[in-house]
Write the structure tokens for this entry.
Amino acid sequence: MNELEKEAIKILQNNWRDGFSIPCEGLYPFQWKWDSGFIAIGLAYFNISKAKEEITTLLDAQWENGFIPHIIFHNESDSYFPGPNYHHSDLHPKASKKYKSTGMTQPPVTGFVLEELYRIGKDKKDILQYIETVIDKVYDNHHYFYKNRDILNEGLVYIYHNWESGTDNSPLWDDIFKTMNPPKYTFERRDTTHVDASQRPTKREYDHYLHIIEIAKKHRYNDQKIAELSPFLVQDPLFNSMLIKSNQSLIALYNLIGNNQEKVNQLKKWQEKSIHSFNKKLFSKKLGAYIHYDLRNKKHLEYISSSSFTPLFAGIPSKERASVLVKTLMQKFGKKNLYLCASFDPSNERYEPKKYWRGPVWINLNWILYKGLKQYSFENEAQRTKEDTITLVKKFGFYEYFDARKEKDKAGYGGHNFSWTAALIIGLLHEK
Ligand code: DGY
């Protein structure tokens, strides 16, 4: 086994708690929804029981209405803000009675993660038996999304908070924040005690984040009220791609399990509508890429980000459109002096190469990009994505995010010994 893989395994072992993994020490002391999925993929290569446990724990925190929260607060750590007493998930009548959590979610990766576990697992019978015990929970989660968050009945679901996107402080959201004027809240940040403030969102940005939560809390996290009142309401191509990819995985897994025709039919219906609307509404011919739609302000957010390329992973574009998309990728993000793939358009004035989601490379998005490129047979670009990703980690360490500029001697930022970086490096090392 190669040294990098050994190191990655050690990180995942160190970040394992009782039944789940933390993203990294200090900065993120609980279980995060989409982190948990990517981490399970890495765990599956060397410890399939832990991979299962990671997912079982996450799904154990599911609410009665199918919702799965973005952070599960498994302990009383006070090294994170905003913590359980701020989010107050118990305001929602259907929230988990067992776990404290947030009242927002994160990209729905769990469906395709289950399919990855099946692909990676050696004992297919055993892993399929496990999947059978949890798959309905993931189905219920998708049902929650289509029932509550597809307000125009077009197969595209909304997110109501930038933290739901996963791309927390992307410049994408600047235009939306300009429409808000939140109070200046008093609170004590914890993130900037773990990581240099220049790599994290600003205080004023946090005011906006909290303000949206205040509105949701005032209405007990009621979906209809949120859809009506949240100043942030977006159809995100990354979020919807993860849902569509996961639909596909659920269909494949239910077919393997058998006797679930009704669910398969329903998933296929969602799938058809979602893919159709996605292509119709979220592709910009002018930019040659998929972009976000701001439902609240009724306009597209005309920026290219790493989220713009995630539809490849979900099989959304036609072959022709995929070629246009990959051309945009290589022209804007794939220049020789840049590692793939910056999180925001490097040619845009809002690009900040060291700041969290305002420009740096993220390993989970690279993994998604690699898989997407492979699926459409863009072999060279896929290879480049894989090599760039491995080089970054080899050279700089298992960081949370990386400066895409090749001339930098230091390029790793944010949390260190970061779980999904470790997990997906293991994944990439095993890809042929
Ligand atoms: C944070 O605290 O920045 C988290 O990423 C929110 O999910």
About this structure: The mean pLDDT is 97.
